[in-house]
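agent> fetching stored inputs for the 6-O-phosphono-beta-D-fructofuranose docking request
agent> found them:
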Amino acid sequence: MSDTPQLTRRPEWTALEDHRAQFQQHLRELFAEDPSRAERYTVRVGDLRIDYSKHLITDETLALLQELATATDVSGLRDAMFRGERINVTENRAVLHTALRAPRDAVIEVDGENVVPKVHEVLDRMAGFADRVRSGEWTGHTGRRIRNVVNIGIGGSDLGPAMAYEALRAYTDRELTVRFVSNVDGADLHEATRDLDPAETLFIVASKTFTTIETITNATSARDWLVAGLGGDDKAVARHFVALSTNAEKVAAFGIDTANMFEFWDWVGGRYSYDSAIGLSLMIAIGPDRFREMLDGFRIVDDHFRNAPAEANAPLLLGLLGVWYGNFFDAQTHAVLPYSHYLSKFTAYLQQLDMESNGKSVQRDGEPVEWQTGPVVWGTPGTNGQHAYYQLLHQGTKLIPADLIGFANPVAELSGELKAQHDLLMANLFAQGQALAFGKTADEVRAEGVPEEQVPHRTFHGNHPTTTILATELTPSVLGQLIALYEHKVFVQGAIWNIDSFDQWGVELGKVLAKRVEPALTEGADVPGLDPSTAALVAAYRTLRK
Ligand code: F6P
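agent> prediction call returned; pasting tokens
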């Protein structure tokens, strides 16, 4: 065990506990005492305006949280990350997704080698390839132009590009059909390909390791579908399959020419990888220029995180607020509620980013943690949620901090009545933030003439904390800004909790067991070591299986 005091025994932590114990004020009181808090508790970064005034905080809370960040040396770990130090201790790797959006002339070294030229070399190759596919210059095996792009990957090799494709649909080439296959359930590939012509279809096999069983299984089935559809000629694969990976050997072993491989590196974590080669499907859809605009957006927030003073540092503030609720109010979950149809996959993407990063229960040195770590992240687009689970947010018994994300303008493509609907959409966002914070008192309900027996049911306690992120418009740059904001927020929390936010050993056991169980299902093999419940389930499956 190291000499550093345990997190919960630090004076900065116990000061926060004392502060929490005395914290009684309702948001109604906090705003009444200081109407300027809306302005004082708003931070701007790039095109994002982040209002955190509707949180259960005072200047004292913020000061104490900042002291915790200082004591836990968040900025020291941040600088080590940007310098390329091996802060992913359990895998002994650097953590350099920020190098993926560094400018061409930047110098970022890993083991004495500047990685920036490699990043731009791959980006340039991706751009060349994307342009050829988009222009029709890159043709399929039979000479037909590519009209369909199917990305096959899972986790970080799927969620990022799939989310961003959805987010930036208005910027995509509408002539191209772009789909994402991740699930090893054959239904996923079936539905993605059933109406496609193999002669016009490009498969992008995205896998950092190129060993992930779901992806390799789907890629193998896709190859069979393609070859069968093109008269059984194996040579077709070269024009219809490209790979995105760190593992050239495995790519070659799968049968994809490494000339058709776009590389990235072990210092890019899977869930931090969609601005690497993993974004190729997105780049084909939106074009290289838009992709670069997105990278510029990421960089705006990277620079801000690195340089902005602590009290105006957006990812630091958001990270600290999460610690405040998770560790001092025992909040278990965090809702992310975008008021944008285009962000329908945004929260699913954040689930991996946050929960795979900070779902840990041991510290960096292997000692168990004695405090809460990452929250359950959940949510769907806001207006739909309002008619589903917001009841619990407003009148349930749980404290659920939420992020409300909206845009001042709809995407430029919307016009007429559809454009005008945007005000109604945003009115809902503002109304929800207000209702959650301030609620409706029993006296206000009575004043409306509500019968006394109904008053408790119609009263809203309020005091539910939200952050409102208002951006100008959902552009590629703004999407990059939003993602980088959350990446660094997650980083801040991992730093404070003293966990390794960049490994994911927790997903290994299930993978190993699935491999072990599979022969019992397919061949009825006697698999030793199955517990009685699982053994009975496997037996039932075998009986019911047609
Ligand atoms: O199983 C978890 C995981 O390792 C993720 O971290 C990763 O994003 C995903 O699997 C896919 O991995 P790969 O890109 O190597 O196929």
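agent> quick read of the result: The first helix runs from residue 11 to 22.
agent> awaiting further instructions
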